[in-house]
Write a structure and sequence with these properties.
CATH topology of the largest domain: Rossmann fold
Strand order of the largest sheet: 2-5-8-1-9
Number of helices: 13
Radius of gyration: 21 Å
Shape: globular
Number of strands: 11
Strand content: 15-25%
Length: 326
């Protein structure tokens, strides 16, 4: 595709993105990074894990995003007594015909909000894992393909430990992004109070349909990424595994580095971020901007790092300071 033609198409589709931002803004005050993170996951068709204390509108943000897309949406409240059948469905015996019929569960929707995902036990997580990775579920002896797009947007509370189960690393790695959200500032908090206490709730309108979503996905593949930038991404990921090769003294803080999914997702999300900025090319700054969201849940720290209060963000910062930018 010619550069000028690509720019025109990006500008055209970018109007849709601004409309989505505007519609979500009817419900959400501030949280621009969260909105952009959700959009990058949606456009890249990648699962998202959102972490933040209660009351920061994590659930409202996902519901608002889903409302802008012409797709099926389902919210599932994860609890310790949730069963795999409650998620994917089950076989039901019919005495009259002496056979089984399959009742599909809520997983058979386009966008799934897994609320407080870390409250469900491992059996439920394993059922969700097949859906996230293979885009299919197995009920009895029958395997069903899930709809396209299929996205899991999960929330979790970082401060409550009672009644929660740590997510398996294999599952955490399936999430394209882990978004950390913080408290609003004073002006935003005042606006929240005004909207909730004194105004009627606004209705979010549909902006995007699945065909347009697929068109944007194909368009993002055309966004230019220089070979040096691809090498830069690979170097960043390898620096999490073998930091000594890059003269970074953090080996004693890293137990396991990022997986190859980090390389794939970092290149996809960097393209998505460039698209959100209305550009037809990726810059090193795009990679730096999205890297923390892609890497923070893929770097496993040692006990020594935890004892010294060193976070994955600290590690990522050290890596970016040391790996040469093209």
């Amino acid at each position: 595709m010619a550069v000028e033609e690509l720019k025109e198409k990006i500008e055209d589709k970018h109007l849709l993105i601004n409309s989505i931002r505007s519609e979500i803004g009817k419900i959400l005050v501030g949280q621009r990074d969260l909105i952009d993170g959700l959009l990058m996951g949606l456009l890249s068709k990648g699962h998202i894990l959102i972490e933040g204390v209660p009351g920061l509108a994590k659930t409202s943000a996902v519901k608002a995003l889903a409302a802008t897309v012409q797709a099926n949406f389902k919210r599932i409240q994860f609890t310790p007594d949730l069963l795999p059948a409650d998620l994917i469905g089950t076989e039901i015996y019919r005495p009259k015909t002496a056979d089984f019929t399959i009742k599909k569960g809520p997983i058979f929707h386009n966008i799934i909000l897994a609320d407080e995902i870390n409250r469900a036990p491992s059996k439920v997580q394993s059922a969700l894992l097949e859906a996230m990775q293979e885009q299919q579920v197995t009920i009895g002896e029958t395997t069903f393909e899930l709809s396209d797009p299929f996205l899991v947007m999960a929330t979790q509370n970082p401060i409550e430990q009672e009644g929660t189960y740590p997510l398996p690393e294999a599952q955490v790695d399936r999430f394209m992004l882990k978004l950390i959200i913080d408290y609003p500032n004073k002006a935003e908090e005042k606006e929240i109070m005004k909207r909730v206490g004194f105004e009627d709730p606004s209705e979010v309108k549909q902006v995007l349909d699945p065909d347009q979503l697929n068109e944007i996905g194909l368009l993002m593949k055309e966004i230019y990424m220089d070979e040096k930038l691809k090498d830069y991404i690979v170097d960043l990921i390898f620096a999490t595994r073998n930091p000594e090769d890059y003269n970074i003294d953090i080996s004693n803080y890293i137990q396991f580095g990022a997986s190859p999914r980090a390389t794939i997702f970092l290149s996809l999300v960097a393209r998505a971020y460039a698209f959100l900025q209305g550009r037809a090319y990726v810059t090193p700054q795009d990679v730096k901007t999205v890297a923390a969201d892609v890497l923070r849940h893929r770097i496993i720290l040692t006990y020594e790092a935890e004892a010294e209060d060193i976070t994955t963000e600290d590690i990522i910062g050290r890596i970016f300071d040391s790996v040469e930018v093209p």
